[in-house]
Design a protein that fits this description.
alpha/beta, six-stranded mixed sheet, four-stranded antiparallel sheet, 37% helix, 28% strand
Length: 246
């Protein structure tokens, strides 16, 4: 076992609808190692999105503890949670969530501006480097409406990497893409994971994709962990696919 980056202890998340209480997460204990690549799978309503939102600091548990590098996340103030989301976590969404009136370069540079880490020209330089890294060096001045779905997701990946996050949270990142483009995007995420010790947590409905690309599968059912196991197809198989395609 490697070093624990994230730990959940007895985490519950309850939602009330009148007199009805829905347990989206029903007492979850979980450890995630630094540098791992984990997939969270399960049917709709199993708790996948709730778990991802809690890991990303977008939601708080009703009960239990969430620890990041041994430090409590669930008790932090709103401004501390915002700093955590800005500096520690990178988000990749199914719907891309790009700002329509900004260029690709401006979308990628925005997290750097919000973090206040760099001046104008430094931000633009880093944003261009990130776009070049995801293969969009010639599309920096294009707005989202001028890009294909795959290109928009590449911009979203570059934006997620802007502040060099320790944790990359990908919520159905290929859900709006055709199979060929989905394979390219997953290959890119796999390659990013291989660099350094970045931890990648993927939520997907696609079990075959999870089996092929991830090192660990967490199968949820009714807010509980039904299975926690290695994949049937190791990530080396996915890497071989990418090498054969290139």
């Amino acid at each position: 076992m490697g070093e624990t980056l994230v730990e959940l202890v007895g985490v519950r998340r309850e939602y009330r609808f009148g007199d009805t209480v829905v347990n989206a997460l029903a007492g979850m204990d979980l450890k995630i190692e630094r540098g791992s690549f984990m997939a969270i799978i399960g049917r709709s309503g199993s708790g996948k999105s709730t778990l991802l939102n809690i890991l990303g600091g977008l939601d708080r548990p009703s009960h239990g503890e969430v620890l990041i590098e041994g430090s409590a996340l669930h008790t932090r103030r709103s401004d501390d949670l915002a700093a955590y989301r800005r500096n520690t976590v990178g988000f990749i969404f199914q719907s891309f969530n790009l700002i329509a009136h900004l260029t690709a370069l401006e979308n990628v540079a925005l997290p750097l501006r919000l973090a206040g880490k760099m001046g104008f020209f430094e931000r633009r330089k880093k944003a261009k480097e990130l776009l070049e890294e995801v293969g969009l060096g010639e599309r920096v001045t294009h707005r989202p409406s001028e890009l294909s779905g795959g290109e928009r997701q590449r911009v979203a990946i570059a934006r997620a990497l802007a502040n060099d996050p320790k944790i990359l949270l990908a919520d159905e990142p290929t859900g709006n893409l055709d199979s060929k483009t989905a394979k390219e995007i997953m290959g890119m995420i796999l390659e990013l994971h291989a660099k350094g010790d970045r931890t990648v947590i993927l939520v997907t409905h696609d079990q075959e994709q999870a089996e092929r690309y991830c090192e660990r599968l967490l199968v949820l059912e009714d807010g509980k962990v039904k299975e926690d196991r290695p994949p049937k197809i190791h990530t080396k198989a996915a890497k071989a696919d990418e090498e054969d395609a290139s």
